[in-house]
Design brief:
Shape: globular
Distance between the termini: 24 Å
Helix content: 25-40%
Strand content: 25-35%
Length: 109
């Protein structure tokens, strides 16, 4: 398992474990069967894990695609409205994909 990314420190309360407050400084990733990745953080006090999201290959490809489209927004000659609509559409696809993978992993299907 390795850190996915560093984030600005985010306050959290371990409401499913020890009930202590802590700061989330990074996310971890774990590979599951079927090319699924679970991204999570853990309470530093009791080690209870909180899943942020699940991804599969399709979702990760959409995440890469949205980064490419978002990069286009830096170009002033690009149609900003059309590009923002494309970003919004991809975000919806990513959410649907993450929901699908979560149901598959947590629902056992």
């Amino acid at each position: 398992m390795s850190a996915v990314q560093s984030i600005k420190s985010m306050p959290a309360i371990c409401n499913e474990g020890c009930n202590k407050q802590f700061e989330v400084n990074d996310f971890q990733t774990a590979r599951l069967p079927g090319a699924i990745e679970r991204t999570y953080f853990a309470c530093p006090h009791c080690k209870h894990e909180y899943v942020a999201f699940y991804t599969d290959l399709e979702v990760r490809e959409l995440q890469a695609k949205i980064r490419r489209v978002q990069a286009k927004l830096q170009n002033p000659s690009v149609d900003q409205a059309a590009t923002l609509k494309q970003v919004k559409d991809i975000q919806a696809q990513i959410k649907a994909g993450m929901d699908r993978v979560k149901a598959k992993v947590e629902g056992g299907g």
